[in-house]
Amino acid sequence: MANNFTSYVNKNVGTSAATIVTVGASTQTTVIGLSCANTSISPVNVDVYITRSSVDYYIIKGATVAVGGAIIVVGGDQKVVLTTNDVLKVVSSAASSLDVVTSVLNIT
Hints:
The chain is mainly beta.
């Protein structure tokens, strides 16, 4: 089994859910860090969730991020394990308002 660290960056996430990670076949992905930075001029609310078999499971829902602030959704002691076909998504309450940085370990 190969272990590969990688990161994903998403700029200007808005009111349509942005796909951050889609887990491929025969892969297990561990999210080791996920931060959302508010780049807008107003506070925003953020949802981060996993879609598995067409069902959404929220990691965080409606969390407020202040102007110029950020929220660490995954990191430190918390990790999130994703399995084959899981999709990690982020959505904001305002258009083009969040930059998202995600670090993962892929095990294939």
